[in-house]
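#struct-pred

JT: dropping the chains for the assembly here, can someone run the whole complex?
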Amino acid sequence: MSTPYAKLPAWADYGLIPLINLSVAFIVAGFVVMLVGENPFRAAVILVEGAFGKGTGIAFTLFYATTFIFTGLSVAVAAHCGLFNIGTEGQAYIAGLGIAIVCLSFDSTLPWWLTFPLAIVASALVGALWALIPAYLQARRGSHIVITTIMFNFIAASIMVYLLVGPLKPAGSQAPQTRNFLAGAELPKLNWIIELFGAKIRSAPLNVCFLLALVMAFLVWLLIWRTRLGYEMRTYGHSPKAARYAGISETRIIITAMMISGALAGMMALNPVMGDQHNVAIDFVSGAGFVGIAVALMGRLHPVGIVLAAILFGMLYQGGAELAFEMPAISRDMIVIIQGLVILFAGALEHMFRPYIQALFASFSPKSVGMQAVTGKGA
Amino acid sequence: MAQAAIELIGINKNFGAVRANRDINLEIARGTIHGIVGENGAGKSTLMSILYGFYQADSGEIRVGGQPASIKTPNDAIALGIGMVHQHFMLVDNFSVLENIILGAETDALLKSSIAKARSELDRLEREYGLEVDPDAIIEELPVGLQQRVEILKALYRGAEILILDEPTGVLTPAEADHLFRILRQLKEQGKTVVLITHKLREIMAITDTVSVMRQGTMVATRETRKTTVEELAELMVGRRVLLRVEKGEAEAGAVKLVVKNLTVRDSRGVTMVDDVSFDLRAGEIVGIAGVAGNGQSELLEAISGIRHAVSGSVMLEGKPIDLTGKADPGELRDRGLAHVPEDRHHVGLVLAFEENENSILGYHDDPRYLKGPFLNIDAIMADARDKIEKYDIRPGNPRLKTANFSGGNQQKIVLAREIEQDPGVLIVGQPTRGVDVGAIEFIHKRLIAMRDQGKAVLVVSVELDEIRSLSDRILVMFAGRIVGERGPDATEGELGLLMAGVEHQEAAQ
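RK: done, full complex below.
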């Protein structure tokens, strides 16, 4: 009775159900498109073609996905430890400061492959430190991490605005941003990989950060499921009481998990700053931290799921931009609505169709839902 | 035979793939007390929830007083004269008795007339059934036994002719339970029908007229109580013969392992839960702490195991003190040979979302045996988990299965296997068999006695008096945070019951 829902086979759990949720989200989004007087099928075609139709589209999709992988991983690491890090946005934003310092200092003297590791360390360090304060307050003072991280987003934004209109702005410039980086702080593009498959790319910002993101996804998997630290984080995340019983220090585990989360959030800044714009500008994170929450939830906090969900959101961003361009009735806000529907059905209403699918599985193949475990011997 | 109050015909209920009730037929005669027994998960509560309208049966028919009834919500059940007293009371703590009784049965927008009506009605019910309660008392200030009485009054106020009680004695002292039984007999004499769900067979024997046994979702037997025995019922419940009382030899108590001196513990609200408690625990003996739940046993266990901060006093483990500031490292205590099976295995002793093998190292995950540098040594952990599964007959024997999918008894075996296999000098166990199937109880008791016979010191805290009496070499009774008496294993239930109710203690204080 305590578990009214039986188990489903893994492929249904991780494949079928997300697919159904996603389809429903798109069907509802289709109705919204109809409401504004456009043809939903044509809109869908434009969206998908915009994202995957041409080499440039794919490169943009993966560029956005890179950003979301970092923020998604950041949210997931904290979530495995039972912490809701809403501060990914601010941690990424303030990490731009670390990158700016490294890049502005070394871009004229060092080659990119020396600047890049320094910038990785700087971004991770600044992101981690920005997460440290809320983590400390949670661990020692019991201040709720959701509240403090939200507040730290505002503080980060204010500091960055101050720096970018003041100290970091080149004298005489009208734009609230640093000077453009020189070649020593420009990351190489990865467009040639897509071109290997015969696609032509005009200009797209996909860069080596994508590879870094994939490496981090693997490292996060290793951390969570294969190390003692990850085991302790998951124990605390599932049951703080069990962690206390097991001798896991609450302070240490909260601070460690949040700093790793903050470091991953900080590394997100590398992608737009060093890979694309080659400067630190106001609001360069532009909501990617919050998208990371959706990505992490949709990816079920698993790095593989997060990479896939990040690509989906990358597609929505890129395809959405094309859609807004092709269909004047559909503005950027419409894209936000579609994204919202995806989050609603894939995240918040994740279990809406589950009981029906389970009933279906139970009637066709009782074994697949673990019927034996139930009727088997007691103790 | 009198006309049936309730007939259940061919009831089926599935939760997803779980077949909680399979083709249940049951007839309960009017004016009788009918017991339903079965292990946890046998489907008793599901069946009663169907009768009370919490769930809908997938198929089958319910007849109340001979008429087919459609019960879709608890309100339908109430309208048909069915009342339910839940295991966990459904009362608003900071409302008065009267306010709780009219809750959901108010007649006007203004409460004045409802309350006046309820007051006179309550007066009548109290006189008729001997259910005295002060109508203006605040619920949270009442002892548990009286709170339960309010639940019964609530049902009667709504015109219940059929009263379902789900595990009603779990939170009561033996004296309170006796009083409850007197009330139930009185209700029966007035022509009410009582359905009693329990896993305590002695209660069934003491009070019911007929008894039905459920096992794995099916109704396996219905018996007239005076024509059956505890042994037969236990066998029907489990499906095989069970030993209700484990055999054990004389204890050979050795050196003192654990000394608790003047220990005082407060809870988070600052209420003193453990009050100046002193005792010691020797190698080769089992000391049982008896008491009604909530008399400080939980806090005592937590303080000894270094999880909870103690205000004053000391605890010595093998001659060395345990840090009682609440900052003790339970990991360090484990290294010093103190193993702890916590009362709450769902939230403390286990992480239910973990795989079985992950739980088999909880608390010992710092042990180099399970590690390769910063990484977990998955091979070693799995081998270790398989080993324990075999030794403790944990079923299903799959270390990759999620812990939540094991039955209560098997979950408890996972915890016990983990703690006992570390070969601790001192083992403290909270509620060793709470929510555990009868079959596993026997196994767990044998293991604990085997620990004792190996010369380990074992401290057992349990609210099950039978368990304490059957396991312990010495029995300490806790009441209101104090140890109010120490008795030998041959102490009678009545004697312990009085101590648990604090009778002697209060007399001494006056």
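JT: nice. Residues 134 and 304 of chain A are 28 Å apart (CA to CA). Confidence is low (pLDDT under 50) at residues 1-5, 370-379 of chain A.
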